[in-house]
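Incident review: delayed structure delivery

Summary: a single-chain prediction request sat in the queue longer than the usual turnaround. Root cause was a stuck worker, restarted by the on-call engineer. No data loss occurred. The affected request and its eventual output are reproduced below so the record is complete for anyone auditing the incident later.

Affected input:
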Amino acid sequence: MAYTQNDFKKGQPRWCPGCGDHFFLASLHKAMAEIGVAPHNVAVISGIGCSSRLPHYMATYGMNTIHGRAAAIATGVKVANPNLAVWQISGDGDGLAIGGNHFIHANRRNVDMNMILLNNRIYGLTKGQYSPTSPRGFVSKSSPYGTVEDPFRPAELCFGARGHFFARAVATDAPATIEVLKAAYRHKGASVCEILQNCVIFNNGTHDAVSTKEGRAKNAIYVEHGKPLVFGENREYGLVQEGFGLMVVKIGEDGITEQDILVHDAHCEDNTLQLKLALMGNGDGFPVALGVIRDVEAPTYDECVTAQIEEVKAAKKYHSFAELLETNDIWEVK
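Output delivered after worker restart:
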């Protein structure tokens, strides 16, 4: 059966006008329609925060759970019903602060669910405190003189937890966001999608460098498995390996041709170059990498748990509670 985005819509979103959550929700509706899984076979789980209202606007199963625990509850949902397509929605505060422990272990275990991290580098619902992804020196209500902490970089955290899928998109870039979400669904295992989005009230302009099509042409690179790492307004720049790092070169200068440019390998088990790509674009002269950066197959937690249960059951002499009782001595009282 073919679905449309309207099949996944419900209610009237109650976010600030211009909030990045509106853009992402529209892309999620479209992505789910193109994926083609029936709404009654989808579960959307969230924690606490502005973005965590999202399940209220999905015509699927959904749970708006407690602060930081979305990954834990989503894991339970997937293990209890492996046939459900499970999507976990968290903000950078909900997902990486109080929920940071669950985030790393969901990746380590490789639970087959799609973990969406909506990153606006601020606590929006509680009115503007700095978050785990706010940059050093960021002035907020909870850091009036500038935060003295270095931020988490979500890709680094994902890779450090032995994550097998990481992708990034900009909320205002609907076509690329939809493709990233579809790729996350196709990946069997824990998939992390970092969505760069804006908070118009408390952190307006935090992703201005890549929020527009023109900005992305200048400041971003779309990575695609098997394709050369070329970028620029006229695709005139590329990435080459220099020692253990990367270097930006201009095609046509110093004898550089497209044949010299690195080809993206999202399926490589060794994540060294993938991590280099994921960490680019922090005022270092490199573009921000968008698209699927890492996509590697590995055994999933839920499949392994199900297989283990079946193996143990097959080796037992009993297969129900009644049969278990009958394995012991039985007395009949008259």
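Verification: The first helix runs from residue 20 to 35.
Action items: add queue-age alerting; document worker restart procedure.
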